[in-house]
Write a structure and sequence with these properties.
Elements lengths: L1 H36 L8 E8 L2 E8 L2 H11 L5 E7 L9 E4 L3 E5 L8 E6 L3 E8 L2 E5 L5 E5 L3 E4 L1 H9 L2 E4 L3 E4 L5 E5 L4 E7 L3 E5 L5 E5 L3 E4 L10 H9 L11 E2 L2 E2 L1 H10 L9 H4 L18 E5 L6 E9 L2 E6 L1 E6 L9 H5 L1 E3 L1
Parallel strand pairs: 2-3
Antiparallel strand pairs: 1-2, 4-7, 4-10, 5-6, 7-8, 8-9, 11-14, 11-17, 12-13, 14-15, 15-16, 18-19, 20-21, 20-24, 21-22, 22-23
């Protein structure tokens, strides 16, 4: 009897060991596919779970990359019988797969609830792609590629035809914070820099506009300019970059903030460049991957260059500012302010100088 129990125990151990090895192998396959297709989870989704059931491997979860799903199933299918429950986003059953931000700013969070961490924001007139929905929330992808949750009350949802009509409509870009007002001087909505508004009619000193959700009103014509996405990108001018950045001076720091109400470091730079015709990636660690590298010498810098800071040992980027000339850079740290890389200056930041990683 003892011998039989011992043999049974050994068999269970061997079986468990075999299952563990298989799990480790499959886990490595998932890691390899994810590393190849989704190296940055902020701009793509690859959430996969494997479940064994009666000799069959159930593959479930979701991803935004169809090619990643195909490769994963092909590799797992070499050794296991599969049931495919892996969904490719956006969800096909969603009728209106586009939306436009219809509040002055919409908060983007890492989970579909108001208490979740704020990770980014979109401002009025920003188009987003709807990936899936849960309750009163939508998982959206903004023009910079960032994926996060936002409340449905901040969006105007559109089908393909409605979205095409919105994109082809005549629009203006808001250059200063202000108010959209009705014909009686009552506030319809607040406006922030960078908002995109659809033009209904131009008058002598006002522009009649409509919001994505159908509300309408007027703005002073001197705080907007025509918005046109056709043609070549505008030339970046150092003096204009400085002028726009100085308009944010003293603005408070907000983790996840990307508007002229409050900004984090990379959200601040996104605003400056968007108002000059360019869309930057969302986070500092993403922004450093674009553009031409500049030597870590003050003499090599030009106005408008992005300066990246972080941990010298790990080389992890955690902060970004913009060079404005004469050894100085502007950034959001506590508030939007100007510091110098010259230790003889009163506004010198030894901490930033020591943590300067790239430009």
């Amino acid at each position: 009897m003892k011998k039989n129990l011992l043999l049974l125990s050994l068999a269970v151990i061997v079986l468990l060991y075999a299952c563990e090895k298989a799990t480790v192998k499959q886990g490595l396959i998932i890691e390899q596919v994810e590393a190849k297709w989704v190296p940055d989870s902020r701009v793509d989704v690859f959430d996969v779970e494997l479940v064994y059931s009666q000799g069959t491997l159930l593959v479930k979860g979701e991803t935004t990359i169809a090619e990643a799903k195909d490769e994963l199933l092909a590799k797992l299918g070499q050794t296991d019988k599969l049931i495919d429950s892996l969904v490719v986003l956006p969800i096909s059953s969603i009728e209106k797969k586009w939306a436009v931000t219809t509040l002055s700013l919409a908060n983007l969070r890492d989970e579909p609830k108001h208490s979740a961490q704020l990770v980014s924001q979109t401002i009025m007139g920003t188009p987003v792609r709807i990936l899936k929905q849960k309750g009163g929330w939508s998982l959206v992808q903004s023009p910079d590629g960032y994926i996060a949750w936002t409340n449905n009350s901040s969006l105007a949802f559109m089908n393909e035809a409605e979205f095409d009509a919105w994109r082809s409509a005549k629009r203006v870009l808001v250059l200063s914070d202000g108010w959209l007002e009705d014909g009686f001087g009552h506030h319809v909505s607040d406006l922030v820099k960078g908002s995109l508004l659809t033009v209904v009619e131009k008058q002598k000193d006002k522009v009649i506009i409509t919001l994505p959700d159908g509300r309408s009103g007027s703005v002073e014509s001197d705080i907007v300019r025509e918005f046109d996405m056709t043609g070549d990108l505008p030339a970046l001018k150092g003096e204009k970059l400085i002028e726009v950045s100085k308009e944010f001076m003293g603005l408070p720091y907000l983790w996840g903030g990307t508007s002229s109400k409050a900004v984090d470091c990379s959200g601040f730079l996104k605003n400056i460049y968007f108002l000059n015709g360019y869309i930057l990636a969302r986070d500092a660690s993403q922004q450093i991957k674009y553009g031409q590298p500049v030597p870590l010498q003050v003499e090599a810098l030009q106005v408008g260059d992005l300066l990246f800071f972080g941990d010298a040992e790990s080389k992890k980027v955690t902060h970004v500012g913009m060079y404005i000339g004469d050894t100085e850079f502007i950034h959001s740290s506590g508030r939007v302010k100007v510091n110098s890389l010259d230790e003889t200056r009163e506004n010198y930041s030894g901490y930033r100088r020591a943590s300067w990683l790239g430009a």
